[in-house]
From TrEMBL:
Its EC number is 2.4.1.-. It comes from Asticcacaulis endophyticus. Signal peptide: none annotated. This is Polyprenol-phosphate-mannose--protein mannosyltransferase. It is a multi-pass membrane protein. Belongs to the glycosyltransferase 39 family.
């Protein structure tokens, strides 16, 4: 105990140095910690973006969509257009493929043997914006942790969970949509927390911000529309708080609801308008992708693309209507199961990990594996159950401590986040009966489980005062375990070479990869049906 106390005093004495004394202020520490977490995220998310230099998983679809945006060719896709436009923006900024002929990609919906990637194709640009949003996600994650803890150093420590999360790194540094969706929806969660804690003076602007961010998130992938429930939580909570003067509160509730809905719809309209503006060209007649899209394009929109009608709100509406028809058709005909599919209720236990790609040569295999940081996932899973027990004890009145005013703020936050987690999982379990689901759909809820973990730890130390002196050491020990776990699984994250024996070692304590016994130089990409 004495050694630990001495170490703590020595650490604090560092800030007495004239060059570091300004860090004694909490405001300065918040800024420095925010910058630090971004810099650490750059190391993990921006590392060697062109490896592998072949498409994997949904990249086989998105690189073709990117080419159509590059050429300004009208097209539809299985997801709303915002994420695809952002991927195309990264490709345009990087310009790595300007000197090769990428036009054949625009003619197909998917790269395959018949329509391969052109020789020398570089994935840096296609993956750039996704990786940058992955870095932005680290900052948003930090801001949420800062809201939960109100202490910069502790928030920074818990934010390392994000940059050590293998699943985020695999998915966010690929040319896929999830990092865009993540940043928008988690920024909406942060806005929700400010409103929930009543930290702001002009809530109307914050309700508008919540609707805006939700609109942007849904324009990447529709499944996160479930997070709109947070807006409902706010209205219900404020209705309860104002139950004594309900008549006076109703106009404010209607205004808040109208702002959220109006900004949400405005973002959808803005994104589809931008989609039409940047894609004014008719698909070539020899384009298989274009001929498929035309089946869902209203005639008025086709006339606009042919130059026979001018752009108008009606054209944008018709183009949007056709886009919805394409997405609905895709949803209707999508398979309900396949070998890589997983059951949502098992997602917290990392079922089922997906081998996005493996490349083998001379007895060595490199993998891109959709797995998480096993230590972090299992700890978060345990935290969910601890949180459930805490909530039940508080609501039942069996714990006089958790009902105390000193726990009110954090317990209310815990209940709100657990409710959102339950809504997310419930909706996705229902969707799992309608269509195939994959473990990467769990990404937003995984962060909710990490926020719940942070609150469980915080409340635990508040409850057991005698343990407070061990808080820093306990959190440091937990992060050390997470770091070791991250390093252990990182070869599967970064496409590093492994022998069969080294690969099999990664299947303890959970089976996370089907290790391949290489016989000759082969390549096996995984694609979604």
């Amino acid at each position: 105990m004495t050694a630990l106390t001495d170490l703590r005093h020595k650490f604090r004495s560092l800030f007495d140095h004239p060059a570091l004394s300004w860090l004694k202020g909490e405001s300065a520490r918040r800024d420095v910690c925010g910058l630090a977490i971004v810099l650490v995220a750059c190391l993990t998310f921006l590392h060697n973006l062109n490896d592998p230099n072949k498409a994997f998983w949904d990249e086989v679809y998105y690189v073709t969509a990117t080419e159509r945006y590059q050429e300004g060719v009208a097209s539809y896709a299985s997801h709303p257009p915002l994420g695809l436009m952002l991927i195309a923006a990264g490709e345009a900024i990087a310009g790595k493929n300007d000197k090769i002929d990428t036009h054949p990609l625009a003619l197909t919906k998917k790269t395959q043997k018949e329509t391969p990637l052109p020789d020398g194709y570089n994935f840096y640009g296609a993956r750039l914006m996704s990786a940058l949003f992955g870095v932005m996600g680290a900052f948003v994650f930090y801001m949420i942790m800062l809201t939960l803890w109100n202490r910069a150093l502790t928030a920074f420590a818990f934010s390392l969970i994000y940059v050590l999360e293998n699943a985020y790194i695999v998915h966010f540094r690929a040319a896929m949509l999830d990092s865009f969706q993540y940043v928008f929806v988690m920024a909406a969660v942060w806005v929700f927390l400010q409103l929930f804690l009543k930290r702001i003076e002009k809530p109307a602007l914050w309700y508008a911000a919540f609707g805006t961010l939700m609109g942007l998130a849904v324009m990447v992938k529709v499944n996160v529309v479930v997070f709109a429930a947070l807006g409902g939580f706010l209205i219900l909570r404020d209705t309860y708080d104002n139950r004594a003067a309900l008549k006076a509160y109703i106009p404010r509730a209607l205004k808040a609801s109208a702002l959220m809905v109006a900004t949400f719809v405005a973002m959808i309209a803005a994104v589809f308008t931008l989609h039409v503006l940047v894609s004014p060209n008719n698909p070539p007649p020899d384009s298989a992708a274009g001929n498929f899209d035309r089946q869902h394009m209203p005639q008025s929109y086709q006339d606009y693309l042919a130059g026979e009608r001018s752009l108008s709100p009606q054209i944008v509406w018709d183009a949007t209507r056709g886009y919805y028809s394409f997405m609905n058709n895709d949803f209707t005909h999508i398979v309900k199961t396949e070998p890589n599919a997983s059951t949502p209720i098992l997602w917290p236990l990392m079922a089922k990990a997906i081998t996005y790609r493996w490349d083998s040569s001379k007895g060595i295999t490199s993998y891109i594996q959709m797995i998480g940081n096993v230590a972090q996932w299992l700890t978060a899973f345990a935290a969910l159950w601890v949180a459930l027990v805490m909530i039940m004890r508080r609501l039942s009145g069996t714990s006089r401590y958790l009902k105390g005013p000193e726990f009110s703020r954090d317990m209310n936050l815990l209940m709100a986040l657990m409710a959102m987690y339950a809504v997310f999982m419930g909706v996705h379990m229902y969707l799992g009966t309608k269509r195939v689901m994959y473990i990467h759909h769990y990404i937003p809820a995984l962060s909710l489980s990490y926020f719940i973990l942070a609150l469980v730890v915080k409340i635990g130390f508040q409850r057991f005062k005698v343990a407070v002196k061990w808080q820093a050491a306990g959190i440091a020990a937990m992060l050390a375990v997470f770091l070791v776990s991250f390093a252990f699984y990182s070869p599967l994250t970064f496409h590093k070479r492994l022998t069969l024996k080294q690969c099999e070692m990664r299947n303890v304590p959970l089976k996370v990869v089907n290790c391949h016994v290489p016989k000759k130089s082969v390549v096996r990409p995984q694609t979604r049906p």
